[in-house]
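Lab notebook: predicted structure, single chain.

Context: the supervisor wants predicted structures on file for every construct in the current expression panel, including those that have not yet been purified. This is the next one on the list. No modifications to the sequence; it matches the entry in the shared construct table.
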Amino acid sequence: MRDRQEILAMPVMGRDDRELAMSIQLERERVRKEGWRPFSFIDELLLRIICHLMSLRFERDFLSSKLNDQALKTSSVIQTMTQILACTSQGSLIQLMRKHLPKFHGFEDLGLLFYDAPRSRFYTIIDPTLCDRDDQIIYYAADLGVCGEMVASPRVRVQDSKTAPAFRSEIDGIPTVARVRNFMFCPLFLHDRKPPQLLAIMQFANKEGGYAVTENDIQLFKQMSGVYELLVERTMEKQTVMNAIVKMKDRTNAITGLLPKEDAAGRQDDAELNLAHVAGSLLRVGGIIDDFAVAKHRRIKRARDEMAATFSE
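Prediction complete. Output recorded below exactly as produced.
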């Protein structure tokens, strides 16, 4: 700095004074044949006011951008949940969850393991488009890998695959991921049972950008867990109803095939009529299952409150 030059500089902070947005620098030089007038307290005060106003403008723009992003994110989640609510099979549920939820939670991929408590085993579907084929369903022992440990101790698990002694790629690895670096496994529960029964495990794999899983990721899942539990339970109940209808139809067709040919035509009509009545009854049962506003009002209210709390933060 030259001996006839004076500088007055101040920072402009943003995001609650945590980040430097810019700095303002004023220079004053002595003019020939004029006396030297250094910066005064008034100059410093005016510059401080200007920097504060600019900091408020940066903060307002940041909050406005964050609010718009949150509104878009909320709209996207609502559309996604609406699509998932229409699922009638576990295969389509897995397909939609893998398509939309990893990005929402900031992960590269997602797997879903259903827990069959009566048979003490896990199962998932390889190709959701072929979920009605038995060769597309894979079963796992309930004591295998990190997921197996969660049967006895169902809590959120966050680990690196290299430092997890119990990690087994055949059950803990997501089929569409080449290599699992880190993961967050989250249990879903059936709260109608006392104590709550393990329903499924959501397997989030590889945090985006190579980052580590944080406490914010865990809290976001916990806030959304009630919604996911409703979606999984509802879809499994629908799948049970649909499987019952298919089995009833297959058995009716098999019985009809054993009848004498001269009676087959007449009895086929009676069988189809009976099947229609049974299918109608089962569909009415499905309608009762769908009536969450009456049968499960408390759980839906809790899930909505959790979603509202998530997007209000």
